[in-house]
Amino acid sequence: ESPSRASVQRAAQTLFRDKGGFAWSADCSVIARGKVVAVKAPEARRDNFVHARVTIGDQPIEVMSLRLFPNVVRLDVLSPGAWRAYHDNRRKRRSQAGRIADYLGAIEREPVLIVGGDFNAPPRDAALDRFAEVTTDAFRTAGRGWGATIINQLPLVRIDQVRASARLTPMAAWAEPTRYSDHRRVVADFVLASAH
Description:
By secondary structure, the protein is of the alpha+beta class. Helices cover 25% and strands 32% of the residues. The chain has a 6-stranded mixed sheet with strand order 3-4-5-6-8-7. Strands 1-2 form a two-stranded antiparallel sheet. The N and C termini lie far apart (37 Å).
C-alpha cells in the first residue's frame, strides 16, 4: 500500500539522491538504486502490481511490487455464506496470481527478476504455485529468524515475500519491524550469477 507519489519520490531522493529512481502506483511502488524505468503492462495484464526495469551498471533487473487480493475475515465460520466467501476469495487470489505469473513468464527468456510484496497468503499456499514456476522464495532458501510479517506487533503469518528468478541466489532474508505499517518489512540479499 503505497504512500502518495510525492512521498515515494521524496523517499527515493533521500535514499539515493540522483543515483536512483522509482516507479509508483497507488497500491505498489518500487524504489531502487540505479536507473529506474516504469514498465507499463498491456491493459489486459494489469493486475495490482507495478513493474520497473532497474539497471545497475549494465545489468537490467526486472523488479515487480505486487499486492494480491486481501483475505476475507469472517467470524461466522460455521455458516455456508462464510465458506462461500472464503472459497470465492481464494479463487480470485489464485486467478490473479496466475495472471501475474503469466505476465512474468512473458517478460523475456531468462530475466533477472525480483518479485516482492503482499501476497496475502502464506508461501506454501497452492494459490501461489504459479510463482514457484518462475521464482524462488528468498526466505525459504536463506531465511533467518521468525520471518512472519503480519501483524507488525505480533507477527504470526508470512504473507509478505521476496521472490527471485534462478540467476539470483538468496544469501539472507529476514523480516523486521516497521513504524508506519501493520506489516513487517522483508529484507533479502542476493548474489547475481553470470549469464550462461
